[in-house]
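Example 5.3 — 4-hydroxy-tetrahydrodipicolinate reductase
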Amino acid sequence: MTIKVAIAGARGRMGQEAVHTIMKDQNMELVSVLDYKEIGETLADTKLFPQTFTVPIFMDLTELSSKTKPDVLVDLTSPESVYQHTREALELGIRPVVGTTGFSDEELKELSAYSAEHGIGCIIAPNFAIGAVLMMKFAEQAAKYLPDIEIIEMHHDQKLDAPSGTAMKTASLIADHRKTHNQGHPKEKETIAGARGANYDGMRIHSVRLPGLVAHQQVLLGGDGQLLTIRHDSFNRGSFMSGVALSINKVMELENLVYGLENIID
Ligand code: NAP
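Solution (predicted structure tokens):
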């Protein structure tokens, strides 16, 4: 069965990659695009895509739905619009696959209840990079045996938040299996504030910001006479696309909302 897909945010950096990923996939058809600016009638009019990309653009999700009948809406827009898009898609019976971050806990609870009540699958994935999700899972497992851990996350110097969401998520998954304890010497003293990094449950997180980097993370797990290093690198936005494709396929089998790619990979 061919999965009919619509995209919101197709002009963006992630959206453009997603358009190409879906166009190339034999099991998917890109049937329409949702935008909020008048940018033309088809993707080709945006000048961002080849002239052969004649996928129609809509500014209203209800009209998009009735004219092109997508099974899935991929949202790669902004925190301001993502909740509205997701809610409307569910109400129209379209399964949302959402990469945009910015939901409140309440919004997530509400969407989750709606999705389960109406049996419509929904995936919200703050990190589509499968390698990054595996890194978190492996670190979570390893923490049971090697509970002294430091996380080093490295990103481009335009990133505003530190530590990264992925580092926080990694630490929180590890914390579920690791007995809280402070690491390092009990009497250790920082000569320069921050030298030992941020303290999460006694684990340390270090944030590196440099031009040239994209998104990278190492989890260092130390034991007597040994060190285990689990590392993931995203070199470009292509790293997120296998997760987008996986989610489009998986959401067709779901009848509830799943938050986080780690919950759909075995
Ligand atoms: P971006 O380049 O700014 O792209 C966002 C696009 O969405 C822009 O073209 C924007 O148009 C458009 N847009 C904004 N509001 C819209 C609306 N109401 N309807 C339709 N289109 C709308 O950002 P990006 O780097 O592609 O990232 C997009 C989102 O994905 C961000 O929230 C980012 O944090 C998230 N992200 C997620 C992952 C993941 O793995 N889950 C990875 C990277 C990024 P204008 O520019 O004209 O406003």
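Remark. The CA atoms of residues 125 and 261 lie 6 Å apart.
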